[in-house]
Amino acid sequence: MASLPRRQYTAGEWEAKKSVILKLREEGKELEQIVKELDKRYADFRPTLAMLKKRMKQWGITSYHKEPDIAEAVRITADREKINKKTILKIGDKWVTQDEISRYLKRKGIHARNQRSWAANIMKQPASIIEPYTPPLSRRASQASLRDESADSNENESDSAGASAGSESDAVGELAIAVIEPESRRFQAEVDTFLNLWSNENVWNVIQGPRELQMLDKAIWNTDYYCERLFFNDAPGLSDLTADALNDFTNGMWKGWDFLFDDNPIAFKHFNEGFASLNRLVLEHNRSFLPELLEMLLNLQLEPQIDILEKLLRQLVGLYREYGMTNEMLYHVIESLLAMNHVERLEAVERLMNNVASHFQTRLGDDHAETKSIQKALTRSVYRKLPVSKAINHLHYVIERDEVNHDMNLYDKCNVCIELALCYRSQRNLEQVEVWISKAMSLADGLTSNFHKTDMRVRCHRVMSYVQRRKGNWQAAYGHWKAAVAESSIGLGPKDSLTVLVESEMADFVERATLNGIVLVDPTIELVVLEPQDEEDVDSGPRRFSAEELGMYGEEEILVPFDIPPENLFGYVEPEDLSAF
């Protein structure tokens, strides 16, 4: 039969051939090959390549993926397999199953045992944003999940070989539902282990009686008494702030919160580490840790379905009761907070933190490190009580209002920019994250307080390390971690809690890179530090210190912290050009 001339085809004609087209695609044929195959099979259906591309776009079907995207997908999948997590990925705005990744690698001639080494050698920056998810269980998968991994793997291979186009679209539909309802489904698998570890039934019904207003008064009274007793006995010292148990607690909680944006299983691993330190804190810590606890309650607000903070309070109540320490002021503060509902507790914690800040300010002065740390925690928490979309609108309003009235101080303005970046980060909008972090870094250079300037710059580097890693640029992310550690060590001191945190986070990052087969080039850090000079040396300019030399100088000898040239802040930097970090 002679072929009919090419023409525009109706939606019905396309739908009739959809299963055939998808089957050809499943077999690994390129789009050009599919067009030729349709030409051979059907005299009355002969679309051009442009027509096929347009129709596949309308169907929401991805064409073939880019090599860097698949390489990053292989690394992410392998990383999650170590914690027994199955993975479905969203590359750009398209869903990609493990079967699709396997078919891509098969077309490339890459065997399963060589996938990790192949991915490690693909170092180009991916063009797309890749998001990992845990696939929801289908009816068939819910039965198969009881079998071992090898049996499950074999079943998946046989299923995929005989799967129809309809069943694949059903699977994608299920995944879409999983993303539409993230609060109820995304975290469930990760939360289960956490809840099983830290749910003590005997603690759930500890509070009965007084109303919330009375509880607030009780919490304030006990907070005041805590501070009075604290200063009466001995002024708190920074050495106490760096106790191992306290660092384990704050690091675990902060890193857990941070990874919720990126990798949920790892987030709950860190929350577990933070909780595991509570036993030592209650028994061994030589001063109560109310400021640090309140900071966590202020800054780590999560979804109500996964109220990590309520679990934290209940676990502490249980420990104080177990050890017969119910006369402690901190116990009474926690007990009062537990009696309140979620919203009232937020307001109460902010009042308590302001109360503590006032005591520290009066007794120790504005320039004391602990006073600054508490004020910093208060500043960061201002916008985290709102849902992300509302917070973004409010923050933009604050920025616009300041452009007219100029009534916001520079430190607050930096905070607004960073909070905006964090909001956009939660939405995976990396372009806006970079815009606001760049603005925050630029504003931070104008801060006169070395403490606040360092705090802002370190926070900027922490966020940018995430951005670069999400782009697949691990070396640039490593440069930001090195910069964060160096700036914090010099500006705040090697024993400061922020320095300890970023050092720990950098170690985690390096370990993760190693597990993914990524080799990081350790940059040489050159820091410009101004020293007192003799009159005859006045024209010699600032001296440069290498990273190795920094250990020879105490904090009192470093008058001005080094600066990183703005042109090297956020772009990709080749290893040989990493002296800026």
TrEMBL record:
Domain Clr5: 12-62
Biased composition (Low complexity): 159-169
Disordered: region residues: 140-169
InterPro entries linked to this entry: Clr5_dom (IPR025676)
Pfam families: Clr5 (PF14420)
Domain of life of the source: Eukaryota
Designated name of the protein: Clr5 domain-containing protein
Organism listed in the record: Orbilia ellipsospora
Upper taxonomic lineage: Eukaryota, Fungi, Dikarya, Ascomycota, Pezizomycotina
